Amino acid sequence: MIDVDMLLTWGAAYKKVQKEEIIFNEGAQSSFYYQLVEGRVRWVNINEEGKEFIQTIIEPGECFGEFPLFDDEPFAASAIADEDSVIIRLHRSTFHQLLKDNPDLHFAFSKLLTQRLRFKFLILKELARHNPENSISTLLQYFKQTKKNICTKCNKINLTRQQIADMTGLRVETVIRTIRNLQTKGLLKINKGKVYC
Amino acid sequence: MIDVDMLLTWGAAYKKVQKEEIIFNEGAQSSFYYQLVEGRVRWVNINEEGKEFIQTIIEPGECFGEFPLFDDEPFAASAIADEDSVIIRLHRSTFHQLLKDNPDLHFAFSKLLTQRLRFKFLILKELARHNPENSISTLLQYFKQTKKNICTKCNKINLTRQQIADMTGLRVETVIRTIRNLQTKGLLKINKGKVYC
DNA sequence: ATCTGAATATGATATCAATCATATCCTCTT
DNA sequence: AAGAGGATATGATTGATATCATATTCAGAT
Lengths: 197, 197
Known about the structure:
Strand order of the largest sheet of chain A: 1-8-3-6
Helix content of chain A: 40-55%
Shape of chain A: elongated
Distance between the termini of chain A: 27 Å
Mean pLDDT of chain A: 96
Number of strands of chain A: 10
Oligomer: homodimer
Strand content of chain A: 15-25%
Order of helices and strands of chain A: HEEEEEEHEEHHHHHEE
């Protein structure tokens, strides 16, 4: 999102996190802007029974946990390293100054928030239809279009059935069966368990 | 959102719309900033079978259809007048200039986008649990906290069971039965069919 | 090549919301 | 006070996904 060199100039610091390490918790107060440099981070809500709902999977270059910077409320979800990762953090006040000094960057952030909202609009309306085939194929199509969680060379989806389940509120078995059905209908391909679309 | 006098100074124009009149359609290109002055507007996705999914119900003072202004994509949902309403429109380019001239206003919009995202995060994680009681009580609690779609004096929810159904992807009968159950549990009150919480 | 753990696969059954049908209530109009 | 239309209510049945159990495949390590 923001150029790493620029972040460093403004005093940002790198941080290494191990797989499954919690970067921040839902409900906690925030004082940093976070951006992923290397690895993968999932942004999740965990309910009382410990079940995770994945709001977004963050890939290198993307920011995360930005809500509190704009509205002063606590984190809306927890960020957990999905694999060993490197993140870069910038102090909240510095981030604000950076936006004030760079109106274009502020517009870029408005665009980012808008795109995240669009994704939520899309997923929400599909989930409301209670049709697994629709939900899953819409999700995969979105990933293909935005080149997220997908190999840009071979179109292999870099997500397990469990992760797709955790993004849609479905169960693994349902996701597995639905993806099989989508293959039968010729809407995607499965090779050694991996999904290509 | 933006002060009406300020909007008028910058050349905005009023427009009256009748109940059920379509203000803009999902997928169409946009050239305006929209704000509701009087009445009520629902922001909806309509699927192939004609079933509506209500993304948000807009109340006086709120803006709507702002996504295209920030990311140049088409409307993500249609806006329909829920009752006879008065809206005010400002040209896209003027809106941009207004934000550039007023950094504080731009920050206020970032906050608005963030709050809308938080709402989507909240609803999405609840819907994913497939538990009508949870979904509905979370939704009503949110409306109570944010003073939306509720009478601030008597806590009467200004939504029909059908509208709650269209916001959660449930069916009217399920919403009716669930709200009854919530009353039995003492979580809300029903008087002559109206919900108080 | 073999082992191991994670991921995928598949069958059987249970469960809860959708669906369909119909009745009652509430509010507004005349 | 009566009528009309929309909203709420409620019972019966269906159907799709969750759940539970277990098997198979795959990728990486030794």
